[in-house]
Amino acid sequence: MLSMIDLFAGCGGMTSGFAKAGYTPVLAVEWNHHAAATYAANFGEDHIRHTDIATIRDKDIPQADVIVGGPPCQGFSNLGSRNIDDPRNSLWREYLRFVRRANPSVFVIENVDRFLTSSEFALLKDEIDGYHLSAGILHAADFGVPQRRRRAIVIGSRIGPIPLPTPTHDRWHPVRAVLDGLPERPATTALPATGTDFLGTRVPGVYKSADLHIGRNPTPLSLRRYRHIPPGGGRFDLPVELMPRCWREKKTGTTDVMGRLRWDQPSLTVRTEFYKPEKGRYLHPQWEPGEHGHRVDRPITHLEAARLQSFPDEFRWCGTKVEIARQIGNAVPPQLARSIAEHLRPYLTGGAPTVPTCPLCHTFE
Ligand SMILES: C[S@@+](CC[C@H](N)C(=O)[O-])C[C@H]1O[C@@H](n2cnc3c(N)ncnc32)[C@H](O)[C@@H]1O
């Protein structure tokens, strides 16, 4: 049995992948009440600490084979300064405190891609003793996630160098693999009015994945805009009279906003506000030209976003619509986490390497 600690656990995307690969979580730390409740609904209440990481005492940190998690990174690229008293570094100090105390054979950090040039990473390299570090960028689509999502991954090992995993997929899964067949018109715009007690406080949920297939109420102007945007297109496809003034005046810049997905490609990165088309390429991929063309003029639902993040349908959710969207967009795609977990196992156990099962390869190809 391999044990793990998940720091800054969110809803547990990372734990989900590691658990599928057979690891057992012995501690998770997450201070957001709704995210911690989602974690508890999936992995149990017994080992989740719903608190600021700084409040956990050394004596309450158990030993574990692996620590995973990435402290939120400010993303300041000030490699030159390396000011170890910078308050932004305090979460990194916490991470290092857990590594020293739990003494894992391996730790894994996931973060935004600019992390590798940040002062936080410089601090980590300066302060960590006895661990060999492998660092680089992994692309979720290379590991069976139907999404282009680049993430910095650092593997720290005190049992000899461990390289980053190599891609398991030479063909990327398209959006179609997870969105095809879901109702085009969600039956409701609200989550069911249920609540559950989590550590003495009421939170909305627990929801099944199907509950997350919720629509929105776009204005007539929004609907007229969506209608003009073909797969792969975006705000530049709008006729001038439908452009908001700020876009009319800004002729260059992000092309993804008000974008429409393509059925036969992975999505772009699913962020925390995927339900707002003006924030990225989040319009449903179904679109045909012409007055009577078959179009689905809405952003993706929470269920669709969770599937693009490779969350299994059996995953359970707690929180408001906004909080659940944040949990989904912040998560490490479970299928990427599972690939990392399977990659680490032979180094930890001396066993033979295994190739992670990919549910999409099995179901759709
Ligand atoms: C990027 S998310 C983690 C996602 C997670 N790894 C997953 O796969 O689902 C970072 C999390 O750190 C939590 N967090 C930030 N500061 C914290 C602190 N001081 N103590 C505990 N949790 C914290 C946030 O609430 C957020 O959920």
Automatic annotation (TrEMBL):
Active-site residues from the entry: C73
Entry keyword set: Methyltransferase, Restriction system, S-adenosyl-L-methionine, Transferase
Coiled-coil parts of chain: none
Alphabetical list of PROSITE patterns matching this protein: C5_MTASE_1, C5_MTASE_2, SAM_MT_C5
Pfam families per UniProt: DNA_methylase
Superkingdom of origin organism: Bacteria
This protein's record includes keyword Methyltransferase: yes
Stored InterPro entries: C5-Methyltransferase, C5_DNA_meth_AS, C5_MeTfrase, C5_meth_CS, SAM-dependent_MTases_sf
EC supergroup of this enzyme: transferase
Reactions that this protein is recorded to catalyse: a 2'-deoxycytidine in DNA + S-adenosyl-L-methionine = a 5-methyl-2'-deoxycytidine in DNA + S-adenosyl-L-homocysteine + H(+)
GO molecular function, a single term: DNA (cytosine-5-)-methyltransferase activity
Protein's GO biological process: DNA restriction-modification system; methylation; negative regulation of gene expression via chromosomal CpG island methylation
Listed EC numbers: 2.1.1.37
Gene3D superfamilies (UniProt xref): DNA Methylase, subunit A, domain 2, Vaccinia Virus protein VP39
Family assignment from sequence similarity: Belongs to the class I-like SAM-binding methyltransferase superfamily. C5-methyltransferase family.
Protein's UniProt name: Cytosine-specific methyltransferase
Source species: Saccharothrix violaceirubra
Organismal lineage: Bacteria, Bacillati, Actinomycetota, Actinomycetes, Pseudonocardiales
